Amino acid sequence: MLMPRHDTGRTPSRLEGRAxxxxxxxxxxSSGLLGAGFETHGDGLRSYHYRLLAALEEWxxxxxxxxxxxxxxxxxDVTAALTExxxxxxxxxxxxxxxxxxKIVTITPAGVERLLELxxxxxxxxxxxxxxxxxxxxxxxxxxxxRLVDAQH
Amino acid sequence: MLMPRHDTGRTPSRLEGRAxxxxxxxxxxSSGLLGAGFETHGDGLRSYHYRLLAALEEWxxxxxxxxxxxxxxxxxDVTAALTExxxxxxxxxxxxxxxxxxKIVTITPAGVERLLELxxxxxxxxxxxxxxxxxxxxxxxxxxxxRLVDAQH
DNA sequence: ATTAAGTGTTGGTCGTACCAACATACACAG
DNA sequence: CTGTGTATGTTGGTACGACCAACACTTAAT
Lengths: 153, 153
Description:
The structure is a homodimer of 153-residue chains. With 153 residues, chain A is mainly alpha-helical. Chain A has one domain: Winged helix-like DNA-binding domain superfamily/Winged helix DNA-binding domain (Arc Repressor Mutant, subunit A, Orthogonal Bundle). Chain A is 64% helix and 11% strand. In chain A, β2 and β3 form a beta hairpin. In chain A, α2 crosses α6 and α4 packs across α5. Chain A is elongated and about 60 Å long. At the A-B interface, α1, α2, α3, α4 and α6 of A face α1, α2, α3, α4 and α6 of B. Chains A, B: GO terms for molecular function: DNA-binding transcription factor activity. Chains A, B: This is HTH marR-type domain-containing protein. Chains A, B: InterPro entries: HTH_MarR-typ, MarR/SlyA-like, WH-like_DNA-bd_sf, WH_DNA-bd_sf. Chains A, B: Residues 1-150 form the HTH marR-type domain.
């Protein structure tokens, strides 16, 4: 071994208590869990795909631009993600008869199926992610973060 | 105008209440604020640079590998970030006399100065980020996220 | 003397989030 | 009807944080 040197690995105290730092660490943990879940049960899909499938299942067919606005995903990223979903026949794209530039995207039965599977995986990850908190704390946490996120400013 | 089409922009209900989703939105907001702060007051520095300066100021000179472990930044990214810090004379690198492969990194007075400036900027961003919460809620939020983040595995 | 392990560096990848530019399609004002 | 403006889908970028593999080199352990 080469000089113990005692790396505590602890975070600089400057960061430790700062909300932005803690949120970035929480995100790291969260996206790590999600990434692992998608990797083992997701057939190469990622969060963008899940978001799009969720929007389509909930609100029905929509144009790509609409999807982009509703999911807060950039148009260009919507295009790319839909191409991947389409290649797995989880969605279908068809030209809007009333507007030949626009494409109407529809989720397929297979798409719904996969969405429901992903739901289960993601629910499991919520459990894992929130494990350190009691049920009451979980509710509190979710309420507080919701408030933070809904800030229009 | 081209067909109102009514984009509420609201999130799919599947996502709305999930902790991992909320955390990702919170992180987005947080890193947006930080990015803007660094852009206007940071002289091109980013969060990696701040982390490294903070570690150096708090724990004194360290080798790059040590820094990497203490800040949880990959060795290769430490190398790159230090090169940028060095070019601004905010840190100095010197070969460890006891180990010719190792480089000891030291923060310069200018580095400390810049760190203190960044501290102020980042403190302001905490305020902005936490604005939607009352002081009691802020303490609660920080306590809960800390607990989430300290989860070992 | 070998082997094992740590160190700094180079050169990649991935995922999320953006942005700019473009061709095409449509809506509306005149 | 004609022009102007705006929406749409697509391509091809950028940034940033996080990671990984490989390499040359140095030192420690056996």
